[in-house]
Amino acid sequence: MGFPNGPGTRAGGTCHCRHCGSPLSETFVDLGMSPLVQSFVQVDRLDEMEPYFPLHVMVCSDCRLVQLRDYVSPAEIFCEYAYFSSYSPSWVEHARLYCEMIARRLGLHENSRVVEIAANDGYLLQHFLPLGIPVLGIEPAANVADAARAKGIPIVGEFFGLELAQQLVAEGRPADLIIGNNVFAHVPDLNDFVAGLKRLLAPEGVVTLEFPHLERLMVENQFDTIYHEHFSYFSLLTAQRVVRHHGLDVFDVEELPTHGGSLRIYLTHADSSAHARAPRVDMVLERERHAGFEGRVAYTRFGERVRQSKRNLLSALIALKNENKCIAGYGAPGKGNTLLNYCGIGTDFLDFTVDRNPYKHGLYTPGMHIPILPVEMIDEMKPDYLLILPWNLKSEIMEQMKHIADWGGRFIVPIPEVEIIDPRGPARP
């Protein structure tokens, strides 16, 4: 299969699929114009113009890859990054359990080599250190890479692809395990990335990739997980098609609750017999086929549901503001900024938002310019409602903040459909 004009590029006004190169003409969902969701604004730049780019998501009519066009380069997004994984205790625990599991499953030891792509602040690789397993992190964002180095984790500060993989192999550093958590969706040059996985992987090695599952995104109406940092959105059918093109194959899959519903896929060299194919791979593939993921209709229905969700959320917020209620946000995640910008929710609805990450304090959300304050401001301001923007962590957040019940506070969860939750009792319609 060829790649005319380069995947993701335009020729004569036409955009092409970043995997197979076919022209893109089918819309998945159009979320209008949006700034980069991690481009938080400093107070002295509030009057400056922000760049906005279309959030118009397409689906390839041939390979069925759901994708955004390449409006911005990874260097513009990831060279300094506002997301530090370690600020979510549940995500750090998820990483710890994974490390213990995979070390047992693969029999990793002091002579093994583990490489994590997009190692962030060392939230995951730190758990291999007490096990005596050598690790290497790849992380181009200098600020979070420094946080990982402070934990004793060696970091290569570059973007991963075939060239870096060849360099590491030439240095005698092939990987027995390659980990990519929430990075597969972040690479515009998908073929170069997967070719790099193939090159870096030792002959009997394993790759595990975690990414939000397109099936759950659609079923649970998770439109806010769409933003420019996420170039691609994967079903298992499409992920398998992509990796097979580069000589890798899926031999196992796990369905995870993280990020609203994710897949963890296990890859090995297609010609390797070291790992038997698990029956659940074909179970998930068949479920996706039954849901219509190889056709067109399943994708085209999504847009209207998203538009209705926008209307429902705005109706709820308008009703509360008409009652003179104070509403604050909890969190300033990327997904929250997609939601705020698509729905047009600014300081006319949210007085402020809070975040546990001090890196964001004193900044303003991109586009809507909502001030980001420390979590302690909730207790000081005592808002009537908290809009939970990282809804995938709603259980953790509602447990941390259940004391808002002391002043009659309630939670608003926007996804999959708007829901108001009273910490003292059942949900209010």
Structure, described:
The protein is α/β, with parallel strands linked by helices. The strands form 4 sheets. It has a 7-stranded mixed β-sheet. A 6-stranded mixed β-sheet has the order 16-15-14-17-18-19, with helices on one face. Helix 11 links the parallel strand 14 and strand 15. Helix 4 packs parallel to helix 5. The chain is globular. The N terminus is likely disordered.
Helix content: 25-40%
The gyration radius over C-alpha positions equals: 22 Å
| Model regions low in confidence, pLDDT < 50 over at least 5 residues | 1-13
Tally of extended strands?
19
What amount of the residues lies in strands?
15-25%
* Sheet having the most strands: 7 strands, mixed
Task: Report how far apart the termini are.
Answer: 52 Å
Question: What's the mean pLDDT score?
Answer: 91
